[in-house]
Amino acid sequence: MPLEFKTNQYPGPNAHLLSLQQSSFSSNHLWRSFHERFIDAIAVQLKERAPESYQVQIVDSIQKADHTPLTPFDVTAIVIHPIDTSVDVQAESVRIECLSPLNSDQRLAYANRRREALEQGLILYEIELCHETPTLLPRPSYLVDPYAQAYAIGLTKPNVHTQWQGFGVDEPFPNLDMILGADDIVPNLDLGRAYNHAFFLSNSGVLIDYLLPPDPKRDPNSMDVALNKYTLPDQDLIRARMAHIAELYEQGVDLDAVMPRPLP
Description:
This protein has helices spanning 15-21, 30-49, 104-119, 191-201, 232-250; strands at residues 54-60, 76-82, 94-99, 123-128, 151-156, 163-167, 176-179, 185-189.
């Protein structure tokens, strides 16, 4: 009997789900459906909390070039701009992108569009969770550096180099004080809440058996192929998280009613 739950059993991004979402990503639709719910949930928080002088919109991501065919990664993004009734055209002020596991052509197209947007004075936030593909942020590569963190959030402001904040496999999302303009912010934007909401709505829990390593069916010759895409320290954290989930379940804890915490 699989050990599965409706809610996210990691304190931050779910390592089991992310492995499934990056398996054969050229034909995998798990990422796209989850991504859209994640973006929607972030937008809901922003609409609730941003000053009335700003408009929050869900738009097409800049991660797809116009000439490429439809792929599972034609995803959405968020733009926030000040409402100015004196003009008909409203320029973007802030853009939030959740970066997909792009192939080389898509990465090039994204880099070009990203540069063009930044040259127009955009404030850009980039959420990077896909640990199996090269980073798009100026940070240590998780694919190469055994001490690199699996996930990161980048912030690029006009005429300022990208700043990034990393976090690990068994860590919660950092809360963001999201900049909207020179004087306005949305303090403590809760990305973890948005992620967990998307996890629940997408019914992702039925895809995961916490008795098994991430994506155990990726290779018929080994259940650990996807697990081995994580660094050795993170593999240990994933195994510890699996053991912790199994222990609490054996104790009769309702894990769908308890928020996961980082292990000591």
